[in-house]
Write a structure and sequence with these properties.
Strand content: 15-25%
Distance between the termini: 57 Å
Helix content: 25-40%
Number of helices: 7
Order of helices and strands: HHEEHEEEEEEEEEHEHEEHEEEH
Radius of gyration: 19 Å
CATH topology of the largest domain: Fructose-1,6-Bisphosphatase, Chain A, domain 1
CATH class of the largest domain: Alpha Beta
Number of strands: 17
Strand order of the largest sheet: 4-3-5-6-7-8-9-10
CATH superfamily of the largest domain: Fructose-1,6-Bisphosphatase, subunit A, domain 1
Bound molecules: 2,5-anhydro-1,6-di-O-phosphono-D-glucitol, manganese (II) ion
Structural class: alpha+beta
Shape: globular
Number of domains: 2
Low-confidence stretches: none
């Protein structure tokens, strides 16, 4: 039988080979992975665990929270606050940052997460996930504030997601490529099942919520129109569409076999740059995609170069196979 490499072994070896994963970061990643196992158990229980349905509360973005949004948020906070590796956490489900309480030692890392991505899919038994991003607290000032989180995505020390699908998988980058781990439920361990993942530069598959087409800006509409025109159109090939409506599942497909994911600005809310959140959705996913040889922009700029101005900042997202993201970004440039 092939030798199995666990998440712990992978991280220890990364630390040895590249020397850039301090013990604290390794602990942090393992604690996040453990929390994801706990969330996976709730997700799998579904109605039997009484975790489905609405919590009848709203988050800071004005979205109605599902029970699992809140449960997952609590699991991640409880798992991470006592270890001494973190200074503070931020989440889609919390208005402001959660500073590690005084009774615990404070570490130098900052953790951001979307505890449950794809909330509309929870109750219909479709893949959902958890997305996370790790930053270092820069500077030697005492205390921690929201300002410490407002760093460009290229500063991330690690990022990843866990997808709760037919298999539960953890996908991770510490800046040395992308590794995928599958949860062995009986053993309770994460086993390395793909390393140095690379996505193809060419693709014939796009992921976008087509029902919003009439609200898009001309460059995005042009790009999708040309895909839809197929063999007879300017692209000279037929495209296929896939849209799970869980960013985690759509990005997972793209990392696995290529494709392009677009969640653009739309004119219904012109002042909002997009639907997805920069710090805990777009940044970690862009880090993974770039590490796998893909590209991620907001139409005019590399996502990882955007300097955030607020915690829950939104952004327009185009990511995936390089040639396609380049093309749709070029269409924006030609228009500007
Ligand atoms: P969340 O459940 O964390 O709010 O995120 C959902 C996001 C993302 O996962 C997905 O790509 C998108 O919302 C789908 O939204 P629509 O179905 O409204 O297009
Ligand atoms: Mn989300
Ligand atoms: Mn969410």
């Amino acid at each position: 039988m092939a030798r199995r490499i666990s998440l712990t072994q992978y991280l220890v070896e990364q630390q040895r080979e590249h020397g850039h994963i301090p013990a604290e970061l390794r602990l942090l990643i393992e604690v996040v992975a453990r929390a994801c196992k706990t969330i996976a158990i709730s997700v799998n229980k579904g109605a039997l665990g009484e975790v489905l349905g609405s919590a009848h509360t709203e988050n800071v973005q004005g979205e109605v929270q599902k029970k699992l949004d809140i449960i997952s948020n609590e699991v991640l906070i409880e798992a991470n606050e006592w270890g001494g590796h973190l200074a503070a956490m931020a989440s889609e489900e919390m208005d402001s940052i959660h500073v590690v309480p005084n009774r615990y030692p404070q570490g130098e890392y900052l953790l951001l997460f979307d505890p449950l991505d794809g909330s509309s899919n929870i109750d219909v038994n479709v893949s959902i996930g958890t997305i996370f991003s790790v930053l270092r607290k820069v500077g030697h000032h005492r205390g921690v504030s929201e300002q410490d989180f407002l760093q460009a995505g290229r500063a991330q020390a690690a990022a990843g997601y866990c997808v709760y699908g037919p298999q539960t998988m953890l996908v991770l980058t510490v800046g040395e490529g992308v590794a995928m781990f599958t949860l062995d439920r009986e053993m309770g361990s994460w086993v390395l099942t793909a390393d140095q993942v690379q996505l193809p530069a060419e693709t014939k598959e796009f992921a976008v919520n087509m029902s919003n087409m009439r609200h898009w800006a001309p460059p995005v509409k042009r790009y999708i129109d040309e895909c839809l025109a197929g063999k007879e159109g300017p692209r000279g090939k037929d495209f296929n569409m896939r849209w799970v409506a869980s960013m985690v599942a759509d990005v997972h497909r793209i990392l696995t076999r290529g494709g392009v994911f677009i969640y653009p600005w739309d004119k219904r809310e012109p002042d909002k740059p997009g639907k997805l959140r920069l710090l805990y959705e777009a940044n970690p996913m862009s880090f993974l995609i770039e590490q796998a040889g893909g590209m991620a922009t907001n139409g005019s700029q590399r996502i990882l170069d955007i300097v955030p101005t607020k915690l829950h900042e939104r952004v327009s997202v185009m990511l995936g196979s390089k040639n396609e993201v380049e093309r749709v970004t070029d269409y924006h440039r030609e228009q500007a």
